[in-house]
Amino acid sequence: MNLLNIPNEKYKLPNGLEIILFQNNTLPFTAVNIWYKAGSANEIKGKTGLAHLFEHMMFQGSKNVPKEMHFRYIQEAGGTLNASTSFDRTNYFEKLPSNDLELALWLESDRMGFFLEALDQVKLDNQKSVVLNERLERYDNQPYGLAWEKIISNLYSENHPYNWPTIGHYKDIESYNLDDVRSFFQHYYSPSNSTVVIAGNFEVNKTKSLIEKYFGEIKNNGTPLALKSNSPSLEQLKFITSEDKVNLERIYLAWHSQNAFHTDDAALDILSDLLTGSKNARLTRKLVYELEIAQDVNTMQFSGKYGGHFMIVATAKPGKPLDEIKKIIMDEISILTEENISPRELERSKNVIKSNFIYSLQNIETIADMLNLYNFYLGEPNSFNFDLNRYNSVSENNISEVVKKYLQNNYVELRIVPERKNAN
Amino acid sequence: MRTDRKNRPASSGEINFILPTVQTYQLSNGLKIYFSEKNDLPLIRINFLVNNGSRFDPDNLKGLTNLLAMCIDEGAGKYDALQLADEFEMLGAQFSVSSDPDLSVLSLQVLRENFIPALKLLASVITEPHLKENDFNREKRKVLVRLEQVKAEPDYVADISFEYFLFGSDSPYAFPVLGIEPTVQNIQIESVRILYQKNFSPFNASIVVVGNIDLKSLQTELDDVFGKWNGKTTIEEPLVNLKKSRRKVFIINKKDAVQTEIRTGHLSSKRSEKDFFQKQIMNLALGGQFSSRLNLNLREKSGYTYGIHSRFNYFKEAGYFEVSTSVDVENTTNALREIYSEINNIKDGITKEELEFAKSSLTKRYPANFETFRQIATNISSKIINNLPDNYFETYIERVNSVSLADVNKITLDSIHPAELTTVLVGDSNKILGQINKDEFGETVVLDYDDVFNN
Q1: Which residues contact B423 (CB under 8 A, 6 or more apart)?
Q2: A33: which residues sit within 8 A by CB, 6+ positions away?
Q3: Does residue A116 register a pLDDT over 60?
Q4: Between chains, do B138 and A79 touch, taking CB under 8 Å as contact?
Q5: DSSP notation for B26-70
Q6: Fewer CB in 10 Å around end: N or C, chain A?
Q7: Do β-strands B248-253 and B443-447 pair in parallel, antiparallel, or remain unpaired?
Q8: How far is Cα of residue A232 from the mean position of the Cα atoms in its chain?
């Protein structure tokens, strides 16, 4: 599809920094999106969460940018900004009126090249406290908030890089010191370990010289070796029950599946859509509409560089046993191994996916991030059409194949149940 | 040669931005259309707005408008609930219904090539919903379970309790959109059908369309699906009582919670062109963005929280000022002291630097509020809901720039009232009470969430 062809120019500076330029001058904004190829997968035991804490530290100023000014400069210029950390990578992004692109390049290059000069204990202590509160707010104090952590720590073995959550364990967050932060920076924040995407409104030649001006002199600290990781597997079924401050019981079932962009990855995404993607999806229709034993049901195919898993999550209506819900889920899985899905179900999912690709083109920041994502996983930024074709080429038969291949293996079953009331 | 990095690089010239134009017209049955053509992608977005929010809910039937919104797409025209969802999906269309205190919004995003069939489905939902009893009963059970579920969500409990204590039980804005358990139990299908008859009328609705279509074709399509739709020509608007409150702290006990959700604020005037920009600028300095006083103090200096925000929240017939955050339980009162102190201090006025920052941020960012189809539709919707002047978009930047420091500081004095702050803390009451010095925050009440709506 022509719309999904996003022509871009990709090149490298002598220090190894990769640059991807996509020009679209329709609107007067420019997005800058940087991926550092380091995420929580690169952490070591005892220091989990360091990649994410580091993301916070990157907003604490650098040699020429005082604390608090990174946000302030961009907001004052009418820009928006943020960052995120996942297992595989950390991204930093901003969108500005195009006449202030140089501001973004100055800020990003100052923290890529001259971060350590401005690092101090006060900033670290402050952000540790902020991140501890982030953990409390988003995980510990949320109903079902610790489920993800419990699932991955049981599904992935101790030595697999997806065994711990990106936010990190509470005790680990408390333990970071300045040396941890310095060493993480020196190890992973080299220009040769990152890619800068500039998308939107800009002049190509002028932008190239600005990139050279701001990023060219940053020293290459060497590129870390890729992690060695075996494909994860689960030796036995695991059943975990955990009490939480919730009023409804919830069941999670998680199977190892496949890495991002593996041949089966797209079929698993479509499987997820046809199980719970809409009211009329198989599990939603049965559990929520017909039997009314679940309040909600969701599925996801999570896939990363070093592993993936397929997950089904259902919340029970009060008084409805999780066993009954689980049975329906397992029956449905079993049906999928025996009978092909209908052509209409497959077409429906494909139509939704195709439309979503086009909807996502509305936002220049999304395009910038996708260019980085495709470049990271596939080595080719302009992979929108390739990606859509992955879905278009899935057949009815592929669906039952992936069900047989993955969902009949060992799994982790987590049940979150209400705390038993203590007499008080 | 080393790059000179000492100073912020200068901006290069001015950007060029053309605001989208909005055409408006009315169908012969009274339905108002707002249309903005946008051709860079082959898609169309519709927001269908109905003046039908929870402020219409009768006292004994809180949650009624929400249930109507939940039922309206559970079967319409020739399709039952599941078929209808299936049809939208076959078209790759994103369709959703939401409702808030003022409005019900049915929104649709669809590729140009599927616009006509998707529009027919949307129109069918609006003009010929089934509202069948069995679908209603299922949706009602869903809401009742949801009400049980949200009791475990500290942020929901905090938001809902705060609005209840802020408005007081006489006001239609006091109650959650979902309703509360005893009133939802009361709701029967008949009340839902009556509400539909009363409020789903072309005279009480507007359509916002943004997308890849020309006006003439759009007119033809809209005439075709909505032209024959008729409904009541007069709408009974509910009365909205508002009263001043006095300073009071409500602690909603959640034993062993590791954080405390904090909400504090007071009623404020409804949105008005006379003070909107001044309040917005003041709020940016106080807590409306990352480098605001509240965030720099409570997050970047003290590390009490992951984030803190303040805002003026506007309803059709009311408004309020609110600060919201969540903090580790040990720092609950430390945080509250700092919040109160920042609210007091803002009455001394904001600085010239804060004013300049706010103006620069608001005006330079303005064009980026019109990037996506959704954003444009949302902006037009906001203009309709708040009854903003025709030239609102075109004059926005000029109006922000014309605000003076004296204006902001005068409006701040008129609109921030520390003595009227209603505060809700959702957390472990024993741990919180242990931190409060006697009478420090005035009257303090401890209660369980289950008792909130009996107050």
Answers
A1: B247, B248, B249, B250, B262, B263, B264, B336, B441
A2: A91, A92, A93, A196, A197, A198, A199, A365, A368, A369, A371, A372
A3: yes
A4: no
A5: E-TTS-EEEEEE--SSSEEEEEEEES--GGG--GGGTTHHHHHHH
A6: C
A7: parallel
A8: 19
Instruction: Give the CA count within 13 Å in the CB-facing half-sphere of A323.
Output: 0
Measured distance CA(B368)–CA(B381) in Å, rounded:
17
Asked if the model's pLDDT at residue A420 lies above 90, the reply is no
B3 at A interface, C-beta within 8 A: yes
Residue identified by tokens 């399709």 is B79
Distance from C-alpha of A130 to C-alpha of A118, rounded to nearest angstrom: 19
Phi, psi dihedral angles at B300 (to 5 degrees):
-75, -20
At A23-74, the pLDDT tens digits run 999 999 999 999 999 999 999 999 999 999 999 999 999 999 999 999 999 9
Q: What is the DSSP letter of A35?
A: E
Using DSSP's 3-state secondary structure scheme, residue A254 falls into strand
Which sequence spans correspond to the domains of chain A?
A: 2-215, 238-418
A248 with B148: Cβ contact below 8 A: yes
Which secondary-structure segment (H or E) carries A75?
helix A69-76
| Model-wide pTM > 0.90 | yes
A to B CB pairs, distance under 8 Å = 209
Please state the rounded mean pLDDT for residues B228-251: 86
Residue A223 pLDDT more than 80? yes
Reported as a single tens digit per residue, the pLDDT across B69-94 is 999 999 999 999 999 999 999 999 99
Q: What are B399's two structure tokens? A: 């109006």
A2-215: CATH topology is Cytochrome Bc1 Complex; Chain A, domain 1 (3.30.830)
Please answer yes or no on whether A358 and B42 come within 8 Å at the CB atom. Answer: yes
Q: Do A245 and B256 touch (CB under 8 A)?
A: yes
Which one of B89, B304, B378 makes the best mutation probe of the A interface by having the most chain A beta carbons within 10 Å? Answer: B89
Q: What would the mean pLDDT of B200-216 be, rounded to a whole number?
A: 97
**Interface subset of A 137-166, CB within 8 angstroms of B:** 137-138, 140-143
Measured between beta carbons, which residues in chain B are less than 8 angstroms from residue A248?
145, 148-149
Report the candidate in A229, A267, A266, A234 with the shortest Cα–Cα distance to residue A253: A234
Q: Which residue has the higher pLDDT, B1 or A109?
A: A109
B31: its two tokens: 């339905």
* CB atoms near residue A195 (< 10 Å): 23
pLDDT band at B1 (very low <50, low <70, confident <90, very high): low
Question: Among residues B343, B341, B336, B280, which one has the least CA distance to residue B312?
Answer: B280
Burial code of B349-374, b = ≥16 C-beta within 10 A, e = fewer?
bbeeebbebbbbbbbbbbbbebbbbb
Residues 95-124 of A with CB under 8 A from B: 95, 97-100, 102-103, 105-106, 109-110, 114
Q: Is the pLDDT of residue A348 over 50?
A: yes
Q: Does B371 touch chain A (CB under 8 A)?
A: yes
Q: Which of B13, B110, B304 sits opposite A99 (nearest CB)?
A: B13
| Per-residue pLDDT at A421 | 66
DSSP 8-state code for residue B437: P
Which residue from A3, A126, A277 is facing B303, i.e. has the nearest CB? A126
- For residues B22-40, average pLDDT: 96
Set out the domains of chain B in order of their start, with CATH numbers: 23-226 (3.30.830.10), 248-454 (3.30.830.10)
Q: Positive or negative, the Cα torsion across A162, A330, A299, A380?
A: positive
- Chain-wide mean pLDDT for chain B? 96
**Does the domain made of A238-418 have the CATH classification 2.30.280.20?**
no
How far from chain centre, in Å, is Cα A215? 27
Question: Which helix or strand (DSSP H or E) is residue A406 part of?
Answer: helix A396-406
Q: What is the pLDDT of residues A133-143, one digit of tens each?
A: 999 999 999 99
